[in-house]
Design brief:
Order of helices and strands: HEEEEHHHHHHHHHHEEEEEHE
Helix content: 25-40%
Shape: elongated
Distance between the termini: 131 Å
CATH superfamily of the largest domain: endopeptidase domain like (from Nostoc punctiforme)
Number of domains: 2
Largest sheet: 6 strands, antiparallel
Number of helices: 12
Oligomer: single chain
Strand content: 5-15%
Length: about 375
Amino acid sequence: MGTAGGVKTALIAGIALAVYLVLVMPALLLGTVFMATQGSAIGVTAAAEANCGFQHPLADFGPGGSTQHIGNQQWTGEQLTNAQTIVTIAVRRTLPKRAAVIAVSAAMVESQLRNLSYGDRDSLGLFQQRPSQGWGSREEILHPPYAANTFYDHLIALPGWHTMPPGVAAQAVQRSGFPDRYAPQEPVAAEIVARYWQGPDNPVPPAPPGQTSPMQQVNLTHGGCPDQGGSDLPLDPQKLPNDFQLPIDPAQSAAVSYALAQLGKPYVWGATGPDAFDCSGLMQAAWANAGVGISRTTTTQRHDGVAVGSLNQIQPGDLLFIPGSLGSPTNPRHVGMYAGHGVVVNAYDSSTGVILETFDAWAPNVVAIRRIAVGGDHAPSR
């Protein structure tokens, strides 16, 4: 029994040794060679990536490039991609570089060039535009090309925007509570624009007809103080009073003179000029002529500027809201501008167009008054 057990044990040990030599050892040798080769390859690849500036797909990267140091801060690929979108749209619209610089500087201040899905109140996106103020739906605003196009639409509606000092045009579009923040960003914005601009600079587009010399277009020969020039613009049912004068305040004067220059033009729902207007479109265009951006619709313009508490406190340029044919006292749907001297200019309806009416006719129906030009200490003017 002892001899047989020893032979059996020796036999098993021999078989195990044979299996180890035939199967396990070659596998270990192959694995060692593979690991050495793989390690060498990884080392070569890493060196090549370092030398060539390669970044892995998970690294910060976008169409605008990877993280870069511009000005005094680092800009991520996401931020630069948004900047590139803003610049590309300006190029496609054949706007001058100046427009792109203004837009990029505004987005730098508002969102740090990030497409934010949140903000103050209902502000959203690159420019922190607000659906409640007529900038578009939430979905539209969060689409960077739409947001950029909308910014440019408001910018080029400002007469002389391309000659305004740094920060002024951006503030006129954005109407920020911190107007001094835009100008300091323009040097870095210009550097970013230069990186993505393609082709030569573009000329400033011509101003719409309604924005050329609006002070000259007011037809006082149909009423008011005699003046040179003439026009066949109808001022029915009212004419300017014989003693009519434009307000002294420059912003009020620019807004009122533009609105009066549109007398006789047709009412077209949804139109914002220069050949036709609806009631809120006329108000927006008039204040844009004064370098002040306001929202687009009657329901949102009711919240622009500041409230005026009494009809006895109205000033030229104030927006007057009445229910109109589609609204109610709590939801006014028609707006006009008090021009001073007891008259209101408004795009009345599709069969009448832009006309003058007496303030006395409006007064019993006025449910809200908004003052757009804030800052001058002016006595009420009736």
